[in-house]
Predict the 3D structure of the following.
Amino acid sequence: MSRDYNQYEIHVHGDVPVKPGITYKQVEEALKPLWKYAGAKSLGDAPSLFEEEPGIGYDAQKRVLSLCWTVEGNADFQNSLDEACGGINELSAEGAGIEVSYYDNDDEEGRDEFGLIFVGPTPEAIHETQRQYMQEDVTRLLERHFDRGEMAEVVDSVNRLFAKRLLSIAQGQKLSRFELPSGGSGHGGGTGNGGHNKRHLH
């Protein structure tokens, strides 16, 4: 059977700053593709698969949409996620990264696959968030072996690459799409140790 029809525990995780004045009803509507995928009748009726996870919440005072939510699904979840991210873009105040993890409990090797989708109010905001994530990733990797003075040249090169890409951004929202693992993964992708990833517990 194709991997595309495997059942996964799919974990969505991230915090998204939202614009002033956004209501719970607007958040619920934006995330409708996700809670409908879970078979719920409303956002409040779609808790995480795991009780210890807070699920999907909106703090109107802090103006933050928080996601720490797991649902069972397969490859078709990507379509619902893409649609929901379009709605989140409309609510967002600045760029943010949302981690999406697929846990295949039937995989005998216990492999977990994960990646990032970026959201934001404009293509430029999304691009800047991608640049910040990449710079942090590169810095963490290099600081194991070099001091900050030695790393500066590499970090500057990364920033120049992103500056070049920014010049060629087409009009309209463009997301870094995370594909269901089938030989690769999105930005930040990797392999875990199997089972449900506990590092997201709050």
User: Anything to note?
Assistant: The first helix runs from residue 24 to 30. The first strand starts at residue 8 and ends at 17. The radius of gyration is 18 Å. The helical segments are 24-30, 32-37, 77-91, 123-142, 148-167.
